[in-house]
Design brief:
Blueprint lengths: L1 E2 L18 H10 L3 E2 L7 E5 L10 E4 L7 H14 L3 H11 L2 E9 L9 H23 L10 H10 L1 E4 L6 E7 L4 H24 L3 H5 L7 H11 L4 E7 L15 E5 L4 H14 L3 E13 L7 E9 L5 E6 L1 H13 L3 E8 L6 E10 L4 H16 L1
Parallel strand pairs: 1-6, 12-14
Antiparallel strand pairs: 2-3, 3-4, 5-7, 5-8, 6-7, 8-9, 10-11, 10-13, 11-12, 13-14
Helix pairs in contact: 1-3, 4-5, 4-6, 4-8, 8-9
């Protein structure tokens, strides 16, 4: 996750008033509880913060961008929000600056009010990253347990998310994911967390685990369960909240309201059982992999040995380990020396996170044109440098 650009005083950089859509601003104000106090409906509306958080602040928002003074009013509104003491003002400014869906994590930890230990803050960030990665994988395909599969795809999605400390203070974190291009991951995350919440409640009431297995079709996975456990463990309460991008609009099948899911330490026993179950029920996968031999190891000049392949096609992992007999090992060594990839079939094993190819068969070198071979060697060199 990448941090949002900050101004010199440490606050998020202010949006350009000329680029602010007044309809989006009004939507964000309403979403965060600001109250419209009047003004001609066709021209502008005056908004004030919720409750008594900042009684001296009001924001004048034009009804559209077609009025002569629209940019001036929006500039005044942005300035007023930047000076407001209302906690939601900062969130509104960030949402105007960053076009994306908002995901907020919060964990309450024992200790001094308004402060968390270093380890607690790091744990929150690790849990958030893990949850985004699990959602990205499940948005691509469903599985009870992914292991190393789709790690590259999920990592790229997480790196596109922009993150800020939560306006709610210590113990909070907010990320903005690309919209609409990242919507599959976020809609999957919402449905999966709702299904997981229901499955935990069902387990605590009935004692049955079948709801977790059924929830896989919504996007629940071992990885998502692990992320929720990480969020909850060591906390007195934890919460995940999602708000859709006001600029992009609400995805089909969802309302405009903020979606909030709560978890607690009392959920941990059920979550631990779910994690074990989901990994256990995921089957091994039959694959035919094309990969470059990047490491060879055996105990002597003859006999079986192990190789590591950097996967070029055939499996959704970056590397696999394969145990080969003497003949196949020699073929792999020859391919390595020649700078050629090999093709091999086998079973991608669940144990170890789908990084091991069991029962290998039919290993053979893959012929490449000289230009293709040069590109492969360059790619492998770049990968080793990284």
């Amino acid at each position: 996750m990448t941090g949002i650009r900050m101004s010199e005083d440490g606050a998020p950089a202010l949006p350009d008033p000329a680029a602010v859509d007044p309809v989006v601003l009004a939507t964000l104000l309403a979403r965060h509880g600001w109250v419209r106090r009047g003004g001609p409906t066709a021209r502008y509306g005056r908004w004030t913060p919720p409750g008594d958080t900042d009684p001296d602040t009001s924001v004048l928002v034009p009804a559209g961008g077609g009025f002569d003074d629209a940019v001036e009013l929006l500039a005044d509104a942005v300035t007023a929000l930047s000076r407001s003491r209302s906690p939601s003002a900062r969130s509104i400014l960030v949402a105007l600056t960053v076009p994306g869906d908002e995901i907020q994590w919060r964990r309450d930890v024992p200790g001094a009010s308004g402060a968390v230990p270093w380890e607690g803050d790091e744990e929150l960030r690790r849990a958030a990253r893990a949850m985004l990665a699990a959602a990205a994988k499940a948005g691509r395909t469903r599985a009870a347990y992914f292991g190393a599969r789709l790690d590259g795809f999920a990592g790229a999605f997480v790196e596109r998310a922009l993150v800020v400390a939560s306006a709610a203070g210590a113990g909070g974190l907010t990320a903005y994911t690309p919209a609409p291009e990242g919507r599959a991951a976020v809609t999957t995350l919402v449905r999966a967390l709702e299904a997981l919440r229901d499955a935990v409640d069902y387990r605590r009431v009935s004692g049955g685990l079948e709801a977790f297995e059924n929830a896989v079709q919504t996007g629940v996975s071992r990885e998502l369960v692990d992320a929720v456990q990480q969020l909850v463990r060591g906390a007195t309460a934890a919460q995940v909240a999602v708000a859709w991008s006001a600029a992009v609009g609400t995805p089909g099948g969802f309302g405009d309201r903020r979606i909030t899911l709560d978890f607690s330490p009392g959920d941990l026993p059920a979550l631990e059982e779910a994690a074990e179950l989901l990994e256990r029920i995921e089957p091994a996968v039959q694959v035919t992999v094309v990969g470059a031999v990047v490491r060879l190891k055996r105990g002597g000049p003859a006999g079986p040995g192990s190789v590591r392949l950097r996967v070029l096609s055939g499996a959704e992992v970056s590397e696999v380990r394969v145990r080969l007999d003497d003949r196949a090992y020699r073929l792999a060594a020859e391919a390595h020396l020649a700078g050629a990839p090999v093709q091999v079939s086998g079973r991608l094993e669940r144990r170890g996170g789908f990084r091991k190819l069991g029962h290998p068969r039919d290993l053979r070198p893959v012929r490449l044109e000289e230009a293709e071979r040069d590109r492969l060697l360059k790619t492998l060199g770049e990968g080793d440098a990284g």
